[in-house]
Amino acid sequence: xxxxxxxxxxxxxxxxxxxxxxxxxxxxxxxxxxxxxxxxxxxxxxxxxxxxxxxxxxxxxxxxxxxxxxxxxxxxxxxxxxxxxxxxxxxxxxxxxxxxxxxxxxxxxxxxxxxxxxxxxxxxxxxxxxxxxxxxxxxxxxxxxxxxxxxxxxxxxxxxxxxxxxxxxxxxxxxxxxxxxxxxxxxxxxxxxxxxx
Amino acid sequence: xxxxxxxxxxxxxxxxxxxxxxxxxxxxxxxxxxxxxxxxxxxxxxxxxxxxxxxxxxxxxxxxxxxxxxxxxxxxxxxxxxxxxxxxxxxxxxxxxxxxxxxxxxxxxxxxxxxxxxxxxxxxxxxxxxxxxxxxxxxxxxxxxxxxxxxxxxxxxxxxxxxxxxxxxxxxxxxxxxxxxxxxxxxxxxxxxxxxxxxxxxxxxxxxxxxxxxxxxxxxxxxxxxxxxxxxxxxxxxxxxxxxxxxxxxxxxxxxxxxxxxxxxxxxxxxxxxxxxxxxxxxxxxxxxxxxxxxxxxxxxxxxxxxx
Lengths: 197, 308
Hints:
- Chain A contains seven helices and six strands.
- Chain A is mostly helical.
- By secondary structure, chain B is mostly helical.
- Chain B contains eleven helices and no strands.
- In chain B, helix 2 crosses helix 3, helix 6 runs antiparallel to helix 10 and helix 7 packs antiparallel against helix 9.
């Protein structure tokens, strides 16, 4: 069992690709979808490596965990953290949580649980996850992507664009060869067209 | 090459409308770019032979706009792609392919609309004949060359950005290659030329045999380029290539796109018969559609098996 909460990534893929500006970073460093702006294009769903964004069947826009933005604005903790009876879900200032989690990992290591580690607490996955986990197995065992499986979408834009430009040049060369341009023929035909128009 | 597959992502359900958009947008882009390049490099006969592209590009891109709007969860908010909903200022993120694509599609829409009006004026339709001198200036001389160059660039963009968009995700297969934009561009080019040829032959338009030969030569070039890029696309997927084409709809690439959509038209072109040439164009178009359906649908079986 684990919470499938939005990770509120430091380099959030959903925020990066959102074409309408509906996805923003809030004053609490969380990632939030502004409902009145989202038009349901679903680009954020293609980008989120954790699969936490879905389309609302009722509102037809993208929806995800907001980390209870309304509660945070009123000084309350997110409902999941407050309700969790085992206190598995902890909420607080990120630096404080990371320090506490590191101590917990050290304690587990000293008890012989050497597999314990923190997932997302450092900046190796998307610059860091603001919702991170203490795990004792590889991420995939928990339904979480590995570092290589969670990438910033814009990483591919320049390489893909350069390849498309190169292909355009090859296509243009094909047209040049196929139409067999000869300057004088073209000039003559242009003169002919100009006269007739 | 990242050969790690992320199967934890959700399915964006970019299916029917999006596949048709990619296909029809590709035809519009490919046909327009052919016409613009003929304006730049061809003779007056060639230009007359490709004019039909200016007739079809704008209506097709109009349909594309409607398809994209229909695919949105909230179609009435389509304008949020271009303008900030709260301030009305332009909305543009150069690092987001969908944002850049929205502006690129709009730019192509405007240029293709100008060309559409231009051919209507040249053909004295809808009382636009009084603008024919202006329309002629759009196609000849330095102004014509500049217009053709701008049009060709925007068409090249429209033909390729859709593939770049698929790469800028975390979806299985789409995000494992950076060649989809180049592949879609080659396919847009070949389907665009095929459409021009099909209309010219099918409607028996007054086009010289020389021009048809030039267009068929270009079509051969485009299909050869597409064939090479399919190979490069699959090689770039590395060890994932087998998984990509093993299941429906990815299997369409080896089972239909290559043999029926590319190799068969290349063979039919060599028969030098009008009927064979028309059939070659139809098959090339079917191959172009199948290619979009195969690539867009590639992640679906994996995500479906994981989530069900």
